[in-house]
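Sequence design from tokenized structure. All designs in this work follow the same two-part layout: the structure record, then the generated sequence. An example of the structure record is given first.
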């Protein structure tokens, strides 16, 4: 850090969905600005990321969970809505085609759809359950996955419907899937960067955080 320029190494923690959907674009932009920095990505379930940060094994991590630890600084990057994604053959009218055009659906209409759920140790699974239970619906479970990425892959293959964050739609849009906004749905997925503020905050870390904030400001936050 005493030398001119930005160089060194940074280790970033992320859940499986964020590492696939969000990080590639951010890392690509960061590497173009700072080619002398080595970026390592550690993927794990979100509850395990803080333990790695506590041990000093990762410098910062992306999370949708709320970390209630005064030692950690939280930077909110953006909030996003959830969409209902259905295979073309299980749709309620064509929606989401072309890119950016949606119909809004009362999710109660989808109560009989075969649904791909997420295992209970994920933040998205809790959100999905709350959306259904708030409407008195018990989804028709056809499969269970440990990650939202796997569930969405099954939807693309025609297995069943699932809920996805808007960022998944934006980065992995498929012509084999119809997408619907959910009527009267206030649940949002909030993505934060966390880091232990009692540890040394390197120039590399500060630059990566700034790059992340600029990326989401330009691409995800509604003006």
């Amino acid at each position: 850090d005493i030398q001119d320029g930005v160089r060194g190494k940074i280790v970033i923690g992320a859940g499986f969905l964020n590492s696939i959907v969000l990080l590639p674009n951010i890392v690509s932009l960061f590497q173009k600005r700072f080619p002398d920095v080595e970026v390592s990505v550690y993927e794990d379930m979100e509850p395990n990321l803080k333990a790695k940060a506590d041990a000093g094994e990762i410098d910062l991590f992306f999370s949708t969970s709320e970390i209630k630890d005064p030692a950690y600084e939280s930077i909110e990057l953006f909030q996003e809505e959830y969409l209902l994604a259905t295979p073309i053959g299980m749709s309620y009218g064509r929606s989401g085609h072309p890119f950016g055009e949606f119909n809004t659906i009362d999710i109660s209409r989808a109560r009989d759809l075969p649904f791909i759920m997420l295992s209970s140790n994920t933040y998205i699974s809790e959100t999905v359950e709350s959306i259904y239970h708030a409407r008195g619906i018990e989804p028709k479970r056809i499969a269970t996955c440990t990650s939202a990425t796997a569930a969405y892959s099954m939807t693309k293959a025609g297995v069943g419907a699932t809920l996805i964050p808007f960022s998944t739609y934006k980065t992995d849009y498929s012509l084999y899937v119809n997408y619907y906004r959910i009527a009267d749905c206030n649940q949002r997925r909030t993505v934060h960067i966390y880091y232990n503020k009692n540890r040394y905050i390197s120039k590399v870390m500060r630059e990566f955080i700034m790059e992340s904030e600029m990326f989401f400001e330009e691409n995800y936050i509604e003006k």
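The CA atoms of residues 120 and 126 lie 7 Å apart. We note this feature because it recurs in several other targets discussed in the main text.
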